[in-house]
Amino acid sequence: MEDLVSAFGLLARIDVLIALLIGSIGGVIIGAIPGVGAAVAIAILLPATFSLEPLVGLTMLLGIYGSSMYGGSIPAILINTPGTAVNALTTYDGYPMTKAGEARRAISLAYSASFFGGVLGIICLILLSPVLAWIAPQFGSREIFLAALLGIVLVVLAHRGQIFAAGMLASFGIFLNTIGLEPVKYTQRYTFDQTWLSSGVNLIVVVLGLFALSQAFLLLTDEDKSPKAQPLKGSLFSGMKELFRHKRVASVSSGFGVMMGMIPGVGEFTAQFMSYTYAQKTSKKPELFGKGSPEGLIASEASNNAVPAAAMIPLLALGIPGEALTAMMLSVFYVHNVIPGPQLFQNEMDFVLALYIAMLLLNVMVLIFLLFSTNLLTKIIQIPTRFLGVVILILSFVGVYSLRNSITDCAIAAGFGVFGLILKRLNLPIVPIILGMVLGGIMETKLRSAMARVKEPLDFIDRPIAAILFGLILLVTVMHIRTLIIEHRKRQPEPDHEMHDSQQR
User: Fold this and answer.
1) Does 16 fall in a domain?
2) Which is the most buried residue in 67, 197, 365, 449, by most CB within 10 A?
């Protein structure tokens, strides 16, 4: 109870409330503009949050992370263009409803499902807090190393059809983290006597290059577009009533979002497709899916909005990010010397509870804002894409330069921006690079610490949690190899028995 009172005290400060307001409303606006997305916005704002107190900076970033998917549903439904990548599935049923003259109903349902998924995800996170507080101290160096390794494996295996590319890019991220002074004996690695490499490759510079600058280059090199969206007429309050007629779909979809959010490297897309498939298979009207099904729209929006809260579980409990956005937030923790993991729950439970309450407030603020300002947001959708590209480009370089007042950092960011553009043009994933850099650093530090107590290889997994994590790594690897073998056999052409018989004759 004392921690809860202290948490409300932390949130009652004016700077925290302003940061939450800016993050939540700003995230909706950013999500509503096709071509930007939460990753770009967080990458641009990241350098600025380093000068703020940790709770202020994190509430702003959490606001953008949690609210961008609300805004992303607006262009997905009205103009068949998802505002963020994770709203792509919303177009399947949202836009057909708009074409059928039910745009207001679709938007209202999307808001209600997003709110339901977001709040349920936070409730699950709060209920899991005592479990996290009990489990987290059981993790030593070897357990955290194995958890980070499991995260890398899951991130790679999550990219079906691109596993080799994802593995190579994750390895490239791990390599980038090794450049500069190594953390134990401070010897130089891969610097080639270049003084500008001695301090290593800064994570934020790489993030800004790969996410923000690459998106700016993409918008500037593509055809200039200015989408049009018709304003909505009537009240948007009816969606919540209709949502409760489909409460089973909303609850199960949110559950998928929570489960997938907790697993590193899986995230919104897997949760969405699992939810959508479940909703279609259990629906009384499966023929409507893809043609304007309210259940399909609910499944998509409820699942993706349940993920952000769940993604905070491995970040807060173990200091292990599950995807790029939580990896960026981890850097805010480190800058302020607030280390996520076992000690956080033991020593700063009020800080953790303040984050939970902030996420609940965020969803309430966003829903209220959207119910009264959707028509204003339809005008923001119409911003020309090349103008948007120029704004992102300028803000990105300002952010990079403000880190260390270094032109070298700007050049490195530009290089990664071009590299990110190439990856996007080739439809290759960017996230494995960032997670490779973050998890690679964790793995190296924890492995070196753990090896001091390990005499034989089996000593590394002689504790229950370490053995479970090692077993999970083996299990997911073996299961994936099994799946590949089955798919390969299915693709093999069946032998033509008749031709074989005629040859024998």
Assistant:
1) yes
2) 67
To the question of pTM greater than 0.85 for the whole model, the response is no
Q: Identify the H or E element spanning 161.
A: none
3-state helix, strand, coil in the chain (%, to 5): 75, 0, 20
- The rounded percent of the chain whose pLDDT value lies above 90 is 4
CB 285 within 8 A of CB 101: no
Question: Strands, DSSP E only, in 92-219?
Answer: 180-181, 188-189
Is residue 64 assigned to a domain?
A: yes
Q: Which domain holds residue 208?
A: 2-138+184-426
The 3-state DSSP class for residue 494 equals coil
Q: Which residues pair with 181 in a beta bridge?
A: 188
Domain count, the chain: 1
Distance (Å, whole) CA 186 – CA 15: 39
Q: 203 vs 46, 47, 209, 431, 471, CA distance in Å?
A: 11, 11, 10, 13, 31
Q: Which of 45, 44, 155, 212 has its CA nearest to residue 440?
A: 155
345 is a domain residue: yes
d(CA 404, CA 237): 48
List residues bridging with 89 in a β-sheet: none
In a domain, 388, yes or no: yes
- Assign 415 a pLDDT band (cuts: 50, 70, 90): very high
The C-alpha atoms of residue 217 and residue 393 are separated, in whole angstroms, by 8
Contact 180, 198 (CB under 8 A): yes
Spatial distance between the Cα atoms of 43 and 408, rounded to a whole number of angstroms: 18
By the 10 Å C-beta count (0-12 exposed, 13-18 middle, 19+ buried), 488 is classed as exposed
CA distance 477 to 446: 22
Collect all residues with Cβ–Cβ distance below 8 Å to 342 and sequence separation of at least 6.
136, 137, 138, 139, 317
Instruction: Give start and end residues of each alpha helix (H) in 263-405.
Output: 267-282, 294-318, 324-335, 342-347, 349-380, 385-404
Select from 74, 92, 98, 93 the least CA-distant residue to 84. 74
Estimate to the nearest angstrom the gap between the alpha carbon of 350 and the chain centroid. 25
- pLDDT tens digits, one per residue of 264-278: 666 666 777 778 888
Distance CA 65, CA 42 (A): 8
CB 24 within 8 A of CB 63: yes
Distance, CA of 335 to CA of 57 (rounded, Å): 11
**Using an 8 Å Cβ cutoff, are 156 and 167 in contact?**
yes
